[in-house]
Amino acid sequence: MKITTGIKARPQKVCIYGPEGVGKTRLAADLPSPIFIDAEGGTDHIDVSRVEVHTMGEIREAVQFLKREKHDFKTVVLDTVDWVEKRLIVEVCASYKVDSIEKIDGGYGKGYTILEEHMMQFLGELDALRKKGLHVVLLAHSQVKKHEDPELGVSFDRYILKLEKKTSGLIKEWVDALLFYRFKTVTAERADGNTNRGVSKGREIATSRAAAFDAKNRHNLPDRIAIVENDAHPASGLKAIFDMDTVAAVAVAPVITKGKAKVEAPQSSAPQVLAERDDDDDIPGLPKSLTDADKLAALIEDAGGQDALDNFIAAKGIVWDDVMKKKAMKNPSGFIAAVRGVAA
């Protein structure tokens, strides 16, 4: 029996879902060296590498090509998994010579169990891509469904994957992260003061489950990642998921002593991941690269740029609690020097 310890860096399985038009495809286009398996024609307006597919046979052929051939892609994006499910239903119905999944094997929901088995086999094919070193990202649409809470004894609407119940549950278990990409909406009082209306206030990625939606992650991401409008790199807040060098570096984090790093394991080419320090000047959660540190320092120096600072912190997943704020306010120049010095 082989027993291992520590964090393992490996390609990730991620599902990003949300309403139509929120920008799922554009977000995925910013992931590391992506290749799209386009099942619904959603990439036509974006300059990306793609394989256009129309049947389950063509989808499997694209997967096998990426598994078999030599290429420079790092991320395989399935756009979208709900359209792949539609193709899978067509394939299953054809094999049973019926025109509806409800009629498979005599009905009574057996068709959905068979569909789940076929989806499980397909996910196994996607797992083979990960063995070649490729991230697998599933894009999906969302839908609103009534949820009956057994503990509270009440019902309410929730955003969930736009998939059949059995395949939805399977995919939620299979992925390392289920991310809900949504428009951030707030209510505002109308001029007449009688009713409220919904107002869109940008977009965000929710990474943890809430009453209103499904989400999860295994990477200790912040609960919300704000997306800066017109950002050239909207997926920068997801770096912790897709940067395998950074994930690996967590296991060999440098020991920081009085501002100097002593690496007790072979150095990685990844940005350093900070460990806790014992001295009073400890500043945990700082940026992992000198570029980000310089950006943070510049935003701190700009007293009028609070919104830009907040957006940057949210996008980069930087810890910014009351202790951090107090240190920055107490000694701004020293704090900035520490930011740049540690990242360097």
What does this structure look like?
The chain has helices at residues 24-28, 56-68, 81-95, 110-131, 165-174, 239-242, 244-250, 290-301, 306-316, 322-330, 332-343; strands at residues 13-18, 34-38, 49-52, 75-79, 135-149, 154-161, 177-189, 196-206, 216-217, 224-227, 255-257, 260-262. Helices cover 35% and strands 23% of the residues. The chain contains 11 helices and 12 strands. The longest helix is centred in the middle third of the chain and has 22 residues, at 110-131. With 344 residues, the protein is an alpha/beta fold. Strands 1, 2, 3, 4, 5, 6, 7, 8, 9 and 10 form a 10-stranded mixed beta sheet that branches. A two-stranded antiparallel ribbon has the order 11-12.
Sum up the overall morphology in one term: globular
Report the β-strand fraction as a percent range: 15-25%
Radius of gyration: 23 Å
Distance between the termini: 42 Å
DSSP summary, beta strand count: 12
Overall SS class: alpha/beta
* Total of domains: 2
Give the proportion of residues in helices. Answer: 25-40%
Average pLDDT number: 79
Low-confidence stretches: 246-284
Along the chain, the helix and strand elements come as EHEEHEHHEEHEEEEHHEEHHHH
- CATH homologous superfamily heading of the largest domain: P-loop containing nucleotide triphosphate hydrolases
Helix segment tally: 11
The CATH architecture of the largest domain is 3-Layer(aba) Sandwich
Major sheet, described briefly? 10 strands, mixed
CATH topology of the largest domain: Rossmann fold
What top-tier CATH class of the largest domain fits best?
Alpha Beta
